[in-house]
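Q: Structure tokens for this one, please.
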Amino acid sequence: MSTEIMINATSYEVRLALVEDGTLSEFHMQRHTEKGLMGNVYKGKVVRVLPGMQAAFVDIGLERTGFLYVADVCVASDSPELCSCMTDCANTNIKAQGLHIEDLLTEGQDIIVQVNKDPIGTKGARLTCHITLPCRNLVFIPLTDHIGISRKIEDEEVREQLKQQIEEIRPDNAGFIVRTVAEHATREELEADMEFLMLLWDDVMDRAKNLPAPAVIFEDLDIISRSIRDFFTLDVDKLIIDDPAGHKKLLQFAETFAPQLLDKIELYDEKIPLFEAHNIEAEITRATEKKVWLRSGGYIIIESTEALSVIDVNTGRFVGKKNLNDTIFKTNMEAAIEIAYQLRLRNIGGIIIIDFIDMEDEQHRETLFNTFKEAVKKDKSRNNILKLSEFGLVQMTRKRNSENLHQLMCEPCHYCSGEGMIKSRRTICYDIFRKISRNVSRAKGSTITLRVHPRIADMLNEEEELTRTRLEEDTGKRIIVAPSKDLHMEKYEIIWQN
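A: Here is the predicted structure, written as tokens:
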């Protein structure tokens, strides 16, 4: 399977596409006016402690305060404002486990936190004191005595060798996690990453001591640099970018942290835009639509709220060839693979309910569930999938660190405020009729003028003309319909004239 990273960079936006065998698999974007916060480290100030929720609100200098759960708190005893990184931290730190939030934090206290979930919807950023600083091959977890190896490195001999190397070169009470890309890294490369991370941590601590809260003391890399650090894994064949300045930046970053990748970084300078040449623009557009067609003629519907996403599977135009059970089974199997792909592409997280078409055959249900579990293995985000129920429902969770693609690229309809529906024209007409009937006794004039949206005006003058005429007879008032393009379709004005 060929895998490529493609980056379209402009002065206002950077878009990254992970393309597998010519198909868009992941899409990430960073707008300079809406830069993500995840990974940033702040010196914050506790503004409110909530014993009833075992959490605290922390001011980190943003419009909304961040939210810190008690399980994410770990305060250094010798320096109350400095936090360590994990609940199994060194002996010099107070462990949050078993303690209450009011025992650990007080209002007005300075505290070092990291954003581990971007603000989503009306919610502020999710914070943690378990600081992690990533590099190409290693992740540094300060003030811990822990060595972790990526679970995706499956060779036990390689795992043990990496663990032994880290044990030999790491400082005391310094924890590290070996990333997947480090499976074939040399000892020199691991030492270089470690030295860089230790110097970075010293710089973060210096800023924490010298800056008043709230203040950012570490800002994570932009998406161009992160493309090498986080996305350029061993199975990626090449990286293509269409911006000369970005290309130069990537070469400099790779030369320092991943020189073996230098030959795989290319500058795109063709006349046809990069994303159009590889049909990525069309794929991005389809990724924001609710309905996704399957090749068989069936389709899935994806609906998301702030905390829950629901996916419905339908046979659509697919009528099958043999019998109903076979048609349903084939539709569900195709949908399972497509849903796993869409979850990853759209970055859908939180609680997810998938409503497959009901199947009576137990073997079919088992095969469908195993197929879906296998399909989501390509996804880097952590997920938990419950067994397929007899009603055809799959309940699952997928780790959500940032807004999904729909939230990033769309906004609520200014007509329906995100409801997806507005009142029908007939309902609005009848609302008007009822309001006239209720208030007619207080009106002295003989004429009523209705300022309404043109579509409402059409219904009042055509389909509801007879009802309007009867109302005129009942009230003794003449009703004049005045179309007004500047009105929302649900808004209207009843003018009682003398």
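A few notes: The two ends are 78 Å apart (CA to CA). Residues 77-95 have pLDDT under 50 and may be disordered.
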